[in-house]
Amino acid sequence: MESIVSLCKRRGFIFQGSEIYGGINGFWDFGPMGVELRQNVKKFWWQHMVAMRDDVVGVDTAIIAHPETWRASGHIDSFSDPMVDCRICKGRFRADQLDISPDNNKPVCPTPHCKGDLTEARAFNLMFRTFVGASEESGFEAYLRPETCQSIFTQFKNVITTSRQKIPFGIAQIGKSFRNEITPRNFIFRSREFEQMEMEFFVKPEADIQEEWYNYWKERRYQWYKDLGIKPEKLHLRDHAKDELAHYAKACVDVEYDFPFGRSELEGIANRGSFDLEQHIKFSKKDLTYFDQGTNEKYTPAVIETSAGCDRTLLTVICDAYDEDIIAGEKRVVMRFAPHLAPIKLGILPLSKKLGEQAQQIEKDLRRFIRTEYDDAGSIGKRYRRHDEIGTPFCATYDFDSETDQKVTIRHRDSTQQDRVAITAIRVYLEDKGVF
Q1: pLDDT of residue 119
Q2: Which residues pair with 122 in a beta bridge?
Q3: What are phi and psi of 205, to 5 degrees?
Q4: 20 to 30 Å CA-CA from 213: which of 89, 272, 281, 358?
Q5: Domain boundary among 319, 335, 357
């Protein structure tokens, strides 16, 4: 994991937020390579979940909602972790993650060499508070959203009216969420600011229909990670036991991945029943029921939710791609991204700077179709190694023979195999290799 974190900074994937001031734990910035890779993950999700389907539409909602939204959802009253404080070092820790002293069978302060006395556990709400208005005195208290799904529920009526969808159908959203995690950890796996990719699929409330769609989305979402390019042997489905389920959930399953720090959750697929819409009906006093003209029925829809972490998926892609091998007797670090995910799809490398003008023209012609990069800094070997580390699947070298035969040498990242390809055929060649 240390090697992965080091590479992410060295090659411009992920930086510590506010690093020059010492950083803030749980906040991360995405560099030139990271933002491209992250965008490709989101694009792949949106393509599968919205663009290629007739029964799912998208929204993009505000990160601050009316405070009653969070009262209706239960976040104000119950979205909390049990916390304790150390009376000596003043540290704050989750009560359910403490070690127990073998001497007196009581929890101990986890700070090294402290062993301070701990307070009794008390609830600590994880939502970030803010104020809307000119000042705290004249404004009102609000919260940064801890999840993206609630605004989907509150906009249900507007969406179904304007999109002219009929149940069953889904509403999807990619957006930022914020949770004041006490112990952010494992790089970008658990952060205080993160991005979610969520979809709420509305169905009839009959039990057999809910189960049918739950099983459907369970299989679809598990397959999506394989299509993304993740190694199947590292993916797992884990059904929640009854004592794990939220009080409103009828069933839930996690898609999990074997990270270097252990097996952990990527996405949850849950049958939430009709709880959310019923809660917002109760608190808002607005009619969020659905009238089915075909059957002349009026009912509150049930919801099948798919909730994926964009940043966790990004970390999965990075961990899954990281590899080390030996090339020509030397150790090589290589990011084996699936070609459709790679931040840079094709590097254009002139063998000499004297050939730069011609190579740049090739790069400019291709950048209309794929993400390319022109690179003439350093030896050809060093340029290959840099592109291996940022995961570029193919590099095209324009050499002195290219001026006469109008061909380039395309090197494969994974095998280092080289093919001589006509300049006019580069795009078709890459299409055949799954870049597009």
Answers
A1: 87
A2: 83
A3: -80, 0
A4: 281
A5: 319
- Convert 143-170 to b/e letters by CB count within 10 Å (16 or more is b): bbbbbbbbbbbbbbbebbeeeebebbbb
Given a contact cutoff of 8 angstroms between Cβ atoms, the answer to whether 127 and 181 are in contact is no
Alpha helices in 164-309 (DSSP H): 207-228, 275-284
Residue 104 covered by a domain: no
Condensed to tens digits (0 to 9), the pLDDT of residues 294-315 reads 899 999 999 999 999 999 999 9
Question: Are the CB atoms for 35 and 55 separated by under 8 Å?
Answer: no
Residue 100 has what pLDDT? 82
pLDDT at residue 235, as a whole number: 98
Q: Which domain holds residue 351?
A: 344-432
Q: Give dist(CA 202, CA 210) in Å, integer.
A: 9
Give the containing element (helix H, strand E) for 260: none
Please report whether residue 412 resides in a domain. yes
Residues 263 and 407 in one domain: no
- Domains identified in the chain, total number: 2
For helices 310-321 and 207-228, give the axis angle rounded to 10 degrees. 40
Alpha carbon 235 to its chain's center: 16
Planar angle of CA 308, 312, 318, nearest 5 degrees: 130
Residue 174 contacts residue 164 (beta carbons within 8 Å): no
Band of residue 6 on the pLDDT scale cut at 50, 70, 90 = very high
Calculate the alpha carbon distances from 271 to 203, 243, 246, 248 in Å: 10, 15, 10, 9
Q: Using 50, 70 and 90 to split pLDDT, how confident is the model at 126? A: confident
Whether 351 maps to a domain, the answer reads yes
Report pLDDT digits (tens) over 228-274: 999 999 999 999 999 889 888 999 999 999 999 999 999 999 999 99
**Alpha-carbon span 302 to 209, nearest angstrom:** 9
Point out the domain boundary residue: 319, 336, 354.
319
- With respect to residue 215, please indicate whether it lies within any of the assigned structural domains: yes
Which CATH number is 352's domain given? Answer: 3.40.50.800
- The per-residue pLDDT for range 409-422, each reduced to its tens digit, is 999 999 999 999 99
CATH number of 34's domain = 3.30.930.10
